[in-house]
Design goal:
The chain has about 425 residues and is α/β, with parallel strands linked by helices. It has 2 domains: about 40-340, Phosphoenolpyruvate-binding domains (TIM Barrel), CATH 3.20.20; about 345-410, no CATH class. Helices cover about 55% and strands about 10% of the residues. It has 18 helices and 8 strands. The chain has helices at about 5-15, 20-25, 50-65, 70-75, 80-95, 115-130, 145-165, 185-200, 215-220, 230-235, 245-255, 265-280, 300-315, 330-355, 365-385, 390-395, 400-405, 410, and strands spanning about 40-45, 100-105, 135-140, 175-180, 210-215, 240-245, 285, 320-325. Strands 7-6-5-4-3-2-1-8 form an 8-stranded parallel sheet. Helix 6 (about 115-130) links the parallel strand 2 (about 100-105) and strand 3 (about 135-140). The relative contact order is 0.11. The model has no long low-confidence stretch (mean pLDDT about 95).
Length: about 425
């Protein structure tokens, strides 16, 4: 065996690629392995109360009961009868135990302009969050950083965080949402604000992360012909927790007629593909938007079918999260989500078992595919669609081992 490359050659290549090594390690760390909620519920700040999740769960169950029951609803939105019964039991339990996974107290479009009264609402919201008993993930959407609302946005954020600290109630699942982003500079400014708040309150560096709402065309394609969205992970390294698509602001900005503004419009799909590319490998989570066709009154049946189809479509396209705007959207959110994971579960379990036991079969999965299968099952477990006991029985792994298979870097840590 003859080799010609010397130690000096290897050192030279290492030096040449050192910047690339650092970029891949810091900017593209991969998924963090944390639980991601399947939805975000938006509630105007002046209407938020501590019992809201329980009330929404009860309202959802009452609506389903009036419509003939959970299994019947699952069947009407396209779930196979055998699976419908199985999903119905799980969704009913979910609506009783955790009807809302992620709640956003809204100080933006859903709230409007309340003038100085917004101060009191920000204090009240923070105190309610600090008392506990809230959904696993909770936070606020403040106003955008455009000039007309910038001062109000920052004051509300300042009050909210300060009150949480004063009440010793900064929750682990805190979410902060920055809307109507159109430039990299706005995200850089938000990162500076987060750092300033951390310093002032003695919080660990990086404790305050934020979601970026993708709802302006300028964020997809900037004035220089480049995509500002693709630059955000590096511009606010480690600060951005998620990209959330804003269905109606984005559609309206493109001049799409109201009757055709939808999560499945080609313009929406284009924007979301850019979001996926920009977020790939960064650990930034992705969320689809909402539908404003609500399942109430005479439109209930059609709206349920539409919502279930949108939820399924998002999941198939790699968006495991979306927005819900009404209690009656909760049943179809969980029916469609649980059916998606339950349908894929048997095949995923079989292939993961074969992979972990090094068996060969009709499909020879590579490590990347095994990670994707493990992540699919992990998401199903986290939202309640798949039981941890099922994972142990069918795959032979506990939940932590499954999570490590989905995220190999966790083992290295």
């Amino acid at each position: 065996m003859t080799t010609v490359l010397s130690a000096g050659d290897f050192d030279r290549i290492d030096r040449r690629l050192s910047d690339t090594d650092e970029l891949l390690e810091t900017a593209y760390p991969g998924d963090r392995g944390h639980r991601q909620p399947v939805h975000t519920v938006y509630v105007p700040a002046d209407r938020y109360t501590a019992d809201l999740p329980a009330r929404w769960g009860a309202d959802a169950l009452a609506a389903v009961h009036a419509a003939g029951g959970m299994a019947a609803l699952a069947g009407r939105v396209g779930i196979h009868p055998t699976l419908a019964e199985e999903v119905a039991v799980r969704v009913t339990a979910k609506l009783r135990s955790e009807p809302i996974e992620d709640l956003r107290i809204d100080f933006e479009d859903g709230y409007g302009d309340h003038g100085d009264a917004e101060d009191a609402d920000a204090v009240r919201a923070a105190r309610l969050v600090a008392t506990g008993g809230t959904p696993r993930f909770i936070g606020i959407r403040f106003k955008c950083l455009e000039k007309p609302t910038r001062a109000r946005a920052l004051r509300t954020l300042d009050i909210f965080i300060g009150t949480l600290v004063d009440e010793d109630g900064l929750p682990d699942g805190l979410r902060l949402t920055l809307p109507k982003v159109s430039t990299v500079a706005q995200v850089e400014a938000m990162a500076d604000v987060a750092a300033a708040l951390e310093h002032a309150h003695g919080l660990p560096e990086g404790r305050l992360r934020f979601e970026v709402q993708v709802e302006t065309p300028q964020l997809i394609l900037g004035a220089d012909g480049r995509s500002p969205l693709a630059q955000l992970p590096l511009a606010a390294k480690g600060r951005i927790s998620a990209f959330h698509y804003g269905t109606y602001d984005y559609s309206a900005a493109l001049g799409i007629p109201p009757g055709h503004q939808s999560m499945e419009h080609p313009a929406a799909d284009h924007a979301k593909l850019v979001m996926q590319l920009a977020a790939a490998g960064t650990g930034i989570e992705l969320s689809d938007g909402s539908t404003n066709i609500l399942p109430i009154g005479d439109s209930t049946e059609a709206a349920w079918m539409l919502h279930a189809r949108f939820v399924r479509r998002s999941l198939e396209r790699g968006f495991p999260q979306g927005w819900d705007l009404h209690a009656h959207q909760l049943p179809t959110r969980f029916i469609a989500t649980y059916a998606f994971y339950r349908e894929g579960w048997p095949e995923a379990a079989r292939r993961l078992r074969a992979y972990t036991e090094k068996k060969t079969g009709a499909v020879l999965d590579e490590p990347a595919t095994a990670r994707a299968l493990a992540w699919f099952v992990t998401r199903g477990v986290q939202c309640g669609a798949i039981g941890g006991d099922e994972v142990a029985d069918r795959i032979g792994l506990d939940e932590e081992e499954l999570r490590e298979l989905a995220h190999p870097k966790l083992r290295k840590g």
